């Protein structure tokens, strides 16, 4: 631990810090966690995520895991999946969850918000065609509800359908009977979650201190 | 105008009271007199005022207070600027003035005993029971910091500063020691939940700000009680005898009082939750448990000299989820309403009595320095405390509380009846300046409630404080919320942080695995899912608005497809709409053959969703014959008996009776609807068509077992000509034929829906004839629906509604353009 703390001034860290906005201490903590997850290797694979015990009971863990291997979350232009990620990618994904700093201007805040929502949108939009189709949305709802065993698949499905109806009525308004709602585009997605206090709902506090010893 | 009216009301109310008092001595005399001399004579009417005096006065006072509120609320222009609590206090002044004028002495005042035993518990119970739990617990840290440290700071700083000022000579000659100043500080330090709630409910600030102020006001009670008791004991002991041991005892007692009180509340709450698992058979009184157990929790804590407020708050917080789930929907609604009635009533009375208490010469002692300095210090130290503590909290908060919010938090530090109650409880033998303290407390209360209350709204506007977001939850928001929760937990897991989300997740799991298992009825546990609940709520709302809209238009018209129409069938219709085309095809064939005259498509009453959901498996033949039999065998119209029962709500359980009423209602409703909508289409055609349809469908059924539910289709058949196909107004319901039980509708399954077959009533002559007669004057048909609507409930009104219809038969002209083939069909 001491060695890691002292390596906070490592040139790699300052570079990463500029890229992701994490402080050097936070990066050091996350790096340690990364090593712990990857069993001291330089890359993380999907099975490493499967080994996290606390994650195993998360209903949408597969989606979250996928998000870490999704190129869209590393930089804007890329598409597709990778099979292993390095520490930099790990940090880049993590950086979506940084709380916005207090000194931000309104415009910056808006950008942060967009970024966070984009991440979420990408998570739902599994085939990367720019819309969340009903099929995809159903999948999300099914997984979300899968933990509360009593609800059957059919219920989840109809909830998803109802939500989709709602989306259609909010974002498009009146539709002719023969019109077909393609799915949620990102613009609609932004509009839908307009009232959301995304800053608090998609941010976690990254500690400067190392707490990984508590984790299995 | 409104003011004039209110004054009149007040005068009326108090005249009533004064009138009663005026009679008081007379009646006494009368009693003595009558009792003494006329032993043998029987007085036919005797005025037993003394006998009923206490409850009578109580009831009268409650009435007067409620009337005050009624008058105040009658004028929205006033309440928009001045909070209701301030107006109530003012009306209390006026009432007090009238009493003073009549009696020359203040006969009524708020005694601490009444306040703490009768007025306060219902208010706090309401806050606990309707507490937004998640919000409360996520901000619990900040609330506790403010409630504990903030209150101590307020008390200490005020006491010390006043003492310093006295030494400095700012207040003249007062016989008050440091300890007494601290005692005074401790009683006036606490922010009052009643006052805060009354003001903040009207300004609609954002929820975090609200819960910070409100939560603080609730939880600081524990601190206040302890501080008050400790300093009271210290004052009794006297300065020199206080040593370290006593102080440590005081600090320990704080923890005991606060946590003990909360514990008592928790225990009672859990007991209640357990109890509510098995109150199914006494549904009529199960809401009463909330009040009785809550009050017991309060009194138990009081008895053990623990914090009673904390006890009843946590009672409500703890049990709300479980009892709301366990109990019947009606009981829950009763509880929610009753708790509000009590709380709002008690609050009204508190404020009125706070006003009345002021009009009493005997309590007022004025000391300009003391009063003004107290006001000044209260305000200043509140601001200092809040800003410092919030700065400290913001170091760790994810979303910091900004400065405008802090200003409102500080400014929202209203003092109220709790402080007054404590001040009155001071012992005059030990504290010579008790009167000064009481009157200062009153001034502080008036200042904060009236002045700060009035200025709160403009201040909130001026500072542009974030207002509460419109709380209407859409389904997608709920789903996203759920997704966020899981994502955050996952990211914390992955990154190895142990944050709030981690803890919350652990708690949820514990709650789900243990608490719910023990405290919830098994049948209820399955339905415990937030997303599903919203789904259910939305469904209910849809159904309601559907019915309302339908009634507004005079019929159960299909209305939803105007707003949003998603044709899922196009892409995802594989498994859910397979059965539909067949039916539709059948119908359209049938329709074109049987009723070519009908051009305008009539929207369908798509109630088959319910129908299918509940009876998808029953055999159609049996059902049909059953209905046929019932239709023909049961003809007698029973007298409607309104059975009185203390333990049951339901008026009329005779299924046949209800069915008869329902059928007749629906029949006439449909007829008028049809004649109104289609103008020329003869009802007879439809009836016949239905029959044909039925036969066809029976055949269908034999061939396709999948169409298990379609015998219900004739329910909407009567006016089914709409081209409406796959999308139903009810969410999630557009999958007919798939046989899915939509759980959202399970509770809605009601008897009336079980009888589609008014249409099968081919042989009953009267309706169809009448309907024909009615055809020409379609516009007025709508009017007739209103009596008919009532008629589902009682056959009496049904008769009334029916009678004019029959009567009109004679007078009405025949239809101008009767469709040619109609008469042949009429039996």
UniProtKB/TrEMBL annotation, chain A:
What sections of the protein cross the membrane?
none
Q: Which is one Pfam family of this protein?
A: EF-hand_1
Any idea what this protein is called? Answer: Calcineurin B homologous protein 3
Under the heading Gene3D superfamilies, the entry gives:
EF-hand
Gene that encodes the chain: TESCB
- Highest taxon of the lineage: Eukaryota
The GO biological-process annotations, alphabetized, read as: cell differentiation
Q: What is its subcellular localisation? A: Cell projection, Lamellipodium; Cell projection, Ruffle membrane; Cytoplasm; Membrane
Instruction: Write down the PROSITE patterns for this protein, in alphabetical order.
Output: EF_HAND_1 (PS00018), EF_HAND_2 (PS50222)
Outline the extent of the EF-hand domain. 112-147
A Gene Ontology cellular component where this protein is annotated is:
nucleus
Listed A to Z, the keywords are: Calcium, Cell membrane, Cell projection, Cytoplasm, Differentiation, Lipoprotein, Membrane, Metal-binding, Myristate, Nucleus, Protein kinase inhibitor
Belongs to which family? Belongs to the calcineurin regulatory subunit family. CHP subfamily.
Q: Name one GO molecular function term.
A: calcium ion binding
Origin species: Nothobranchius furzeri (Turquoise killifish)
Recite the lineage of the species: Eukaryota, Metazoa, Chordata, Craniata, Vertebrata
Cite the InterPro entries for this sequence.
CHP3, EF-hand-dom_pair, EF_Hand_1_Ca_BS, EF_hand_dom
Query: How does the protein's chain sit in the membrane according to the entry?
Result: Lipid-anchor
Automatic annotation (TrEMBL), chain B:
One GO cellular component term noted in the UniProt record for this chain: early endosome membrane
Which regions are flagged for Polar residues bias?
A: 786-798
Transmembrane found in the keyword field: yes
* Originating organism: Nothobranchius furzeri (Turquoise killifish)
Instruction: Describe its function.
Output: Plasma membrane Na(+)/H(+) antiporter. Exchanges intracellular H(+) ions for extracellular Na(+) in 1:1 stoichiometry, playing a key role in salt and fluid absorption and pH homeostasis. Major apical Na(+)/H(+) exchanger in kidney and intestine playing an important role in renal and intestine Na(+) absorption and blood pressure regulation.
Q: Single GO molecular-function term?
A: potassium:proton antiporter activity
* Protein location: Apical cell membrane; Early endosome membrane; Recycling endosome membrane
Query: Which protein are we looking at?
Result: Sodium/hydrogen exchanger
> Which Gene3D superfamilies does UniProt cross-reference here?
6.10.140.1330
């Amino acid at each position: 631990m001491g060695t890691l703390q002292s390596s906070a001034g490592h040139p790699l860290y300052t570079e990463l810090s500029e890229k992701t906005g994490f402080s050097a201490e936070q990066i050091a903590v996350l790096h340690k966690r990364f090593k712990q997850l990857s069993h001291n290797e330089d890359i993380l694979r999907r099975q490493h995520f499967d080994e996290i015990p606390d994650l195993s009971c998360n209903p949408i863990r597969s989606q979250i895991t996928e998000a870490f291997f999704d190129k869209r979350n590393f930089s804007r232009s890329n598409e597709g999946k990778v099979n292993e990620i390095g520490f930099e990618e790990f940090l880049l994904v993590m950086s979506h969850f940084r709380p916005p700093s207090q000194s931000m201007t309104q415009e910056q805040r808006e950008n942060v918000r967009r970024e966070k929502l984009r991440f979420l949108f990408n998570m739902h939009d599994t085939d990367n065609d720019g819309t969340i189709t009903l099929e995809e949305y159903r999948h999300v709802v099914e997984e979300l509800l899968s933990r509360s065993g009593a609800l059957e698949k059919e219920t989840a499905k109809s909830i998803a359908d109802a939500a989709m109806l709602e989306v259609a009525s909010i974002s498009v308004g009146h539709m002719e009977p023969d019109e077909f709602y393609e799915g949620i585009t990102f613009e609609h997605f932004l509009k839908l979650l307009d009232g959301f206090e995304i800053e608090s709902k998609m941010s976690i506090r990254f500690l400067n201190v190392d707490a990984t010893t508590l984790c299995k | 105008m409104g003011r004039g009216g209110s004054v009149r009301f007040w005068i009326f109310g108090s005249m009533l009271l004064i009138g009663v008092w005026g009679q008081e001595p007379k009646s006494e005399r009368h009693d003595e007199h009558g009792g003494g001399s006329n032993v043998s004579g029987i007085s036919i009417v005797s005025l037993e005022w003394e006998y009923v005096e206490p409850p009578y006065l109580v009831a009268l006072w409650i009435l007067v207070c409620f009337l005050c509120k009624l008058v105040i609320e009658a004028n929205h222009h006033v309440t928009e600027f001045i909070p209701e609590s301030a107006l109530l206090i003012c009306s209390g002044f006026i009432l007090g003035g009238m009493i003073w004028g009549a009696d020359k002495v203040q006969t009524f005042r708020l005694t601490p005993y009444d306040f703490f035993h009768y007025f306060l518990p219902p208010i706090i119970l309401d806050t606990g029971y309707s507490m937004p739990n998640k919000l409360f617990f996520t901000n619990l840290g900040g609330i506790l910091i403010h409630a504990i440290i903030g209150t101590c700071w307020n008390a200490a700083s005020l006491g010390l500063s006043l003492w310093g000022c006295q030494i400095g000579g700012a207040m003249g000659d007062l016989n008050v020691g440091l300890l007494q100043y601290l005692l005074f500080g401790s009683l006036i330090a606490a922010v009052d939940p009643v006052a805060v709630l009354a003001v903040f409910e009207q300004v609609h600030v954002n929820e975090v700000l609200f819960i910070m102020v409100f939560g603080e006001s609730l939880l600081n009670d524990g601190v206040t009680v302890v501080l008050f008791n400790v300093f009271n004991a210290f004052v009794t002991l006297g300065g020199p005898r206080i040593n370290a041991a006593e102080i440590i005892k005081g600090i320990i007692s704080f923890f005991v009082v606060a946590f003990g009180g909360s514990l008592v509340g928790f225990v009672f709450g859990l007991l209640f939750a357990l109890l509510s698992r098995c109150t199914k058979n006494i549904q009529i009184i199960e809401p009463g448990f909330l009040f009785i157990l809550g009050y017991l929790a309060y009194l138990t804590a009081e008895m053990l000299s623990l914090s009673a407020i904390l006890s009843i708050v946590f009672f409500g917080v703890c049990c709300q989820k479980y009892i709301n789930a366990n109990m019947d929907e009606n009981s829950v609604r009763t509880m929610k309403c009753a708790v509000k009635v009590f709380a709002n009533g008690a609050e009204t009375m508190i404020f009125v009595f706070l006003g009345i208490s002021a009009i009493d010469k005997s309590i007022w002692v004025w000391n300009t320095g003391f009063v003004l300095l107290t006001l000044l210090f209260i305000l200043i130290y509140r601001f200092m405390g809040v800003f410092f503590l919030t700065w400290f909290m913001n170091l760790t908060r994810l979303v910091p509380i900004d400065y405008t919010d802090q200003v409102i938090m500080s400014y929202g530090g209203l003092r109220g009846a709790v402080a007054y109650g404590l001040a009155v409880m001071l012992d005059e033998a030990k504290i010579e300046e008790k009167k000064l303290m009481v009157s200062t407390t009153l001034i502080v209360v008036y200042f904060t409630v009236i002045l700060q209350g009035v200025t709160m709204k403009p201040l909130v506007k001026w500072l542009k404080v974030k207002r509460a977001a419109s709380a209407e939850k859409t389904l997608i928001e709920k789903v996203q919320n759920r997704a966020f929760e899981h994502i955050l937990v996952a990211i914390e897991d992955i990154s190895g942080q142990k944050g709030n989300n981690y803890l919350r997740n652990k708690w949820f799991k514990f709650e789900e695995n243990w608490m719910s298992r023990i405290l919830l009825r098994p049948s209820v546990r399955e339905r415990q899912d937030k997303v599903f609940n919203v789904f259910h709520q939305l469904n209910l709302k849809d159904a309601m608005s559907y019915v309302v809209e339908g009634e507004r238009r005079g019929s159960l018209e299909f209305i939803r497809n105007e707003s949003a129409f998603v044709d899922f069938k196009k892409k995802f219709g594989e498994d859910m709409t397979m059965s539909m085309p067949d039916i539709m095809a059948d119908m359209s064939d049938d329709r074109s053959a049987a009723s070519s005259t009908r051009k305008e498509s009539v929207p369908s009453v798509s109630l088959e969703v319910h129908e299918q959901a509940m009876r998808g498996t029953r055999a159609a033949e049996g059902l049909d014959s059953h209905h046929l039999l019932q239709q023909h065998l049961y003809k007698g119209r029973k007298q409607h008996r309104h059975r009185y029962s203390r333990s049951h709500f339901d008026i009329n359980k005779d299924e046949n009776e209800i069915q008869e009423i329902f059928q007749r209602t629906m029949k006439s409703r449909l007829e008028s609807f049809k004649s109104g909508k289609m103008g020329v289409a003869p009802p007879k055609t439809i009836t016949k068509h239905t029959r044909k349809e039925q036969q066809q469908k029976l055949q269908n059924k034999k061939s396709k077992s999948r169409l298990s539910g379609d015998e219900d289709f004739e329910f909407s058949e009567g006016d089914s000509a709409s081209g409406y196909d796959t999308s139903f107004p009810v969410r999630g319901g557009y999958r007919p034929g798939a046989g899915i039980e939509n759980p959202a509708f399970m509770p809605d399954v009601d008897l009336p829906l079980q009888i589609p077959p008014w249409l099968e009533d081919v042989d009953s002559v009267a309706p169809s004839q009448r309907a024909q007669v009615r055809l020409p004057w379609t516009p007025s048909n709508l009017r007739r629906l209103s009596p008919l609507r009532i008629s589902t409930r009682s056959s009496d009104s049904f008769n009334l509604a029916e009678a004019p219809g029959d009567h009109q038969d004679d007078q009405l002209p025949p239809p101008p353009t009767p469709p040619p083939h109609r008469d042949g069909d009429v039996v």
